[in-house]
Amino acid sequence: MLRFLVRRVIFGVVVLWIVATVVFAMYFIAPHDVARTLAGRQANAETVAAIRHNLGLDRPILSQYGSFLWKALHGNLGYSYSNSESVTSLIGHGLPVTVSLVVGGALLWLVLGVTTGVLAATRPRSVVDRTTTGFALFFYSMPTFLLGEVLLLLLFFRLHLVGIDWFPGAGFVPFSENPLQWARYLILPWLTIALVTAATYIRLTRGSMLEVMGEDYIRTARAKGLRKRRVIYRHGLRAAITPVLTQFGIDVGTLLGGAIVTENVFGLPGLGQLVISSLAKQDLPTVIGLVLLASAFVVVANIIVDILYSVLDARVRLS
Amino acid sequence: MSLLEVDDLHVSFSTPDGVLRAVRGISFAVDPGETLGIVGESGSGKSVSTQTIVGLTQGARISGTARFEGKDLLTMSESELRTVRGAEIAMIFQDPLSSLHPHYRVGWQIVEMIRAHEAVSKKEARKRAVELLGLVGIPSPSQRVDDFPHQFSGGMRQRAMIAMALALNPKLLIADEPTTALDVTVQAQIMALIKRLQKEFGTAVIMITHDLGIIADIADRVMVMYAGKPMEYTDKRTLYHQPHHPYTEGLIGSLPQQGGRGSPLKSIPGLPPSLLRVPKGCPFHPRCVYAMDRCAGEEPPMRQVSGGLDHRSACWLPPEAVGTTTDIVVTRQELARQGRSSAQEESA
Ligand SMILES: Nc1ncnc2c1ncn2[C@@H]1O[C@H](COP(=O)(O)OP(=O)(O)O)[C@@H](O)[C@H]1O
Ligand SMILES: [Mg+2]
User: Residue A20's domain spans which residues?
Assistant: First the structure.
């Protein structure tokens, strides 16, 4: 088991290294000469050359590659071309916002998806099942930005017009500053992310539960004279939850790199917004830093999922 | 009074292909401490009928009665039934690996059973779980109690299931093909264990099997089932020595030791009918070597035949036509021929 995990970690490191190499190559296939762009239109050849030298762009590629990897390994992702700030500190500003958004939204969709999925699975083809499946499909097929805008229109704008300001339209308050305001500003974004994603979890939970509830050990649990709730949750859900949590880990890992659409709709200054603005400004170091970070999240999420899998399943853990 | 009395039990499922009539009117009784064998080929409704009795069949249309100590289990409330399940009537199943929860330790699963019915501390329940595992022959039970099911061998898993089933000293144990999934040597051990514990605790047993050999080992009375119906119902001796129903005869004929050395195993030719479209008349007639014209048109009821005191069979052969000796078989064939030709004369 331990050997398996070590293998997974090594594999993760290799993936990150490949990603780093690919993004490093972006410097050279970038559509513009970076130094020239930075120098401005009026600059003469010497200025451009000076900038190029400053950025180290005149050194041999391999040496540039080496120092890029070395610095990245130490958390130094260089300086933003457009802001006079290090990429690390830009990310440092955006990360708490994205983490707040994703963690809250994820917990919401997990609880929503799993409880509804269990409910639907234990009464297949019932009214509850059909209604929840219908709702789930409705939100599932709705684009995130549209749902976000609709929520804004109904819960922010309409209420605002009649003088009720429960849900702010945009912005972010750090948790450390005021937890209540933090939550208040995040409710609509959380809802948006959760409603759009919950459908996947309802379907996943429902399918997994339907399969598990037909297993022999569920029949045993019922033959033991256990209460229905206990059979469903302690025996059924316990076995059915594994694929759900696997998906959960991967989804959270992916979103942590930046929930672009939701952040945009609700004006949340997170990593997703940073992705958009740095792309627009062709701020290559920032883009590269964000890509590396997002990949790291996915790789780490995968490793966590593997660990979780073995924690949840004794057959994997003890083999 | 019988411990369990089942009367005219019917169970049907609605499936996409139509109504599947899995159990079509079975009746039997089990006395305290007694063993009833239910035997029949796979798909004859053995599991469905016993699981229906304890309320484990879902989405089925059920009719009839199943009185346990006088109270009808089929009309009991769910919470009332729950106090019977596990505590009064326990079950073990065919595949002990899939019947134990893969994510919980064996001891935990036994403790859960005890604590579902008795207000005892976890520590006390665990102590009993260890004792039970020892009782069913698990070596070093105080360590194995913390194993997961997959760490047990097949035979040990079934032993653990038996330990769990007997944890609350139930009055009735329903064993649904408990040895089918096990190696032959292990099969004998498990049967010996069930017999030993039954004697020790005075538990009544319903032993379900498709193997008449197992019935010979343990049963007092036997019900032979076919296509959701009882074919023959009698005590074990009568069943082996004075069978009436040709289906029973076929099952006896397919027992390995009956063929003797060198002679090949005879199995009954053909397959059981689909329960979606059961043939008219006797359900066994398409496979029956004695089939008469009447068999295809009219379904024989369970009626008294002459093999033993309480010997019933659902076959149109005369009530006296019991036994497996060559004489009897010849007589039956003669009778069957008459049954066929008389109809031909009538139609001519
Ligand atoms: N839940 C169910 N829905 C539909 N058909 C079922 C269901 N359970 C059992 N059956 C059918 O009922 C018949 C009898 O099954 P079963 O009692 O398991 O047979 P046995 O235990 O004698 O091998 C089979 O044809 C089986 O396919
Ligand atoms: Mg069966």
Answer: 2-73
